[in-house]
Amino acid sequence: MAELDIGQHCSYASCQQLDFLPFTCDRCQKVFCKEHRSPDSHNCTECTTPVTLAGARRGPSSYECSLSECSNREMLDIVCDACKKRFCLQHRHAGDHRCQVPPPNQPTVERMARTAQHVENILKSKAEAPVRKPRGRKSKATADKVSLMKLKMAAIGDKHTPESDRIYFRVVLPLGSAEKSKAFFFSKMWTVGRAIDKCASLVGIQNDNNVATAKKLLLFAYEDGSSLRAEVTLENLLQDEEVKVCNGSTLILEYVADGTVTLEQLQAYQIK
Question: Where is the AN1-type domain (predicted)?
Fold first, then answer.
């Protein structure tokens, strides 16, 4: 039986579809299927201005996939950010259409490897570092109480001083002394000057405070090196907010020139 000569193939290169009701372009005079009948759909070489066919349905243009082995078309304009070519949904990702242009600012393999190693080193150093728990107010208060208890156990002073009147200090002795420091207790009713005399007497160091031309033996705050006025009582001293001294504090006993208000080189005085 002879084959019927019905229909024609679409002239669009990527189509070639057999259409039983082909359309002839009135510009280039070529035959096209229904999908490519409009000049803009088959990229008509003879058409220089947009043409709308009478009775043709208006709608969005379709976009051809730029991948050579793909004939898919999409109603959406899908453009690769790197190579700026159009692709179908199936090949829209760079890996799917074997994109030759890397996206801008994309890290290289070497850079990614270095970053990964850097992160690993940071995590390793944090894991190896000892965990230090911040000391809260409650734990500090507990530590201060324990320190004061130890100070009381080792302190020396006038045994006739009532327990309720006693104030405790650790005193760093003058540079060159046989002992570095000693724990003392004094009556809160005493002046700073009387406490100095008692310190010198108990540890057996020279005290020439009554000699006008001699160096003076004074007490200083350990925190900032400020001198403690000899005429002030210890009770008032603890109530003075400007003086960094409290029950259990560390003081420094040293020979200085008359009129000295601040002790220099505090780092030379170590608590032992």
Answer: 4-52, 59-107
